[in-house]
UniProtKB/TrEMBL annotation:
SUPFAM superfamilies: Cryptochrome/photolyase FAD-binding domain, Cryptochrome/photolyase, N-terminal domain. PROSITE patterns: PHR_CRY_ALPHA_BETA. One of its GO terms (molecular function) is FAD binding. Gene3D superfamilies: 1.25.40.80, DNA Cyclobutane Dipyrimidine Photolyase, subunit A, domain 3 (1.10.579.10), HUPs (3.40.50.620). Its cofactor is (6R)-5,10-methylene-5,6,7,8-tetrahydrofolate; FAD. Belongs to the DNA photolyase family. This is Photolyase/cryptochrome alpha/beta domain-containing protein. The keyword Transmembrane does not apply. It holds the Pfam family DNA_photolyase. Binds 1 FAD per subunit. The record marks W296, W349, W372 as: Electron transfer via tryptophanyl radical. It comes from Paracoccus sphaerophysae.
Amino acid sequence: MRGAIWWVRRDARLADNAALAAAAAAGPVTAVVLVEPVLTAQGAATRWRLGRALATLDADLRARGGALTVRTGAPDSVLPALAAELGAAEVHALAWPEPRRIAADEAARAALDRAGVRLVLHDGATLLPPGAVRNAQGQPFKVQSAFARAARALGVPPPVRMPARIDWRPAPGKPLPDLAPDMNRGATVLAAHARPAGEAAALAQLHAFLDGPVEDYAASRDRIDRPGGTTGLSAALAVGEIGPRTIWAAVADRPGSGPQKLLSELMWREFAWSLLVARPDLPTANFRPEWDRFPWQGDGPEAEAWRRAVTGIPLVDAGLREMFVTGTMHNRVRMVVASVLCKHLLTDWRVGAAWFDDCLTDWDPASNAMNWQWVAGSGPDAAPYFRVFNPDLQAQKFDPTGAYRSRWLSPGSGYFEAVPRSWRLDPSARLRPVIGLAEGRARALAALAQMGAAG
Ligand SMILES: Cc1cc2nc3c(=O)[nH]c(=O)nc-3n(C[C@H](O)[C@H](O)[C@H](O)COP(=O)(O)OP(=O)(O)OC[C@H]3O[C@@H](n4cnc5c(N)ncnc54)[C@H](O)[C@@H]3O)c2cc1C
């Protein structure tokens, strides 16, 4: 048998991986990672996290007699050459239907076709094949609850079994380079605070959550002062150390409000991917075109204070610091920091989404874009813009002990060691709010009225 290439992208796992299973069925497997433009264009934190996932996968493969083969360059030139070198007739990869990835995959497919090599994309990055969930008119859903009902009715396929035996055939290549040299000193801080990487760690994390915390998930998931109320699996999902179907299968038959709530949150991720597939411009364009008239302020000093986590609004600064230090942020706080940016600071959601793209280790192009548009009001099934979160009331409600704010606002949180020195932040500075909450709210509502009047 001529063997096949398993082209590893955001699927750093051996289990529940249809691409690996298909490659293994074709003979010896060469597991390949490409340092390519789609990867290098991604944000720093997500590249850093992907680097850790791939390094751990490489160690897992070495323990089984394999290794990752690393090559540099665009897939449409590197893959045909590698296939020729190996005599491989097939390349298998897990589909990741993000616009840049789709375009690069199409170019790779055309080049491989010319070389007589088949590129096969498999599903498994989402619960159901992207684009499969449609309404009675055959259109994608715009309302999440209806989408989730229809998706559940279709039934989530079980995870793919890992092949019992895989013959690994690594090819010569260089070691995996540092994928995020631009993290600079932030990398050391992140390494000290991020969760462990790898497939085994993700599975252990899932099972530890299912062994207890899941029962209380529906009630605890918003308590930001009590860590451990959520799975913490988003970064592992984003780099594919665990497949969503593995989580679904482990949770689906459990009774109780906690497990059911977890399934419904996974359906938000699923909805986001269905939106991105239907509207590839979701990360860059207002889903609802009337939002093109909204009088956003430019990316000015208020937005910069937000990015640097020095707005003087405690919950906002705490959340943005948590993200800088850990690469993630609690969902409740993401909603508040995004709301303050789009409403009190009247800043275009794309400014905030771009900052998250760069800072999140769990960056997911679909979830990030959908959630930003949800908060801003420009998305489908979005929160109405006039519903303006008051960050102080949110803090009282979800951080009643103040533990979250104390942790992330303390000078010893790690934040000041992680940020660029050029920001010249003073840990002992007493911050004044960049805007009064009542003033910001009134300004936001006036802008909304102006958009309405312009319509
Ligand atoms: C402005 C904004 C930006 C966001 N950007 C991202 C992003 O880039 N990547 C990302 O994975 N999530 C994003 N989210 C969604 C959510 O905040 C994270 O998925 C969640 O905090 C991850 O923590 P967890 O794994 O412990 O979640 P859990 O509560 O344990 O939930 C389990 C899984 O369900 C999914 N999920 C939960 N909530 C959502 C949601 N609102 N939307 C989509 N999927 C969800 C995630 O895959 C998550 O890992 C964003 C939310 C907001 C408000």
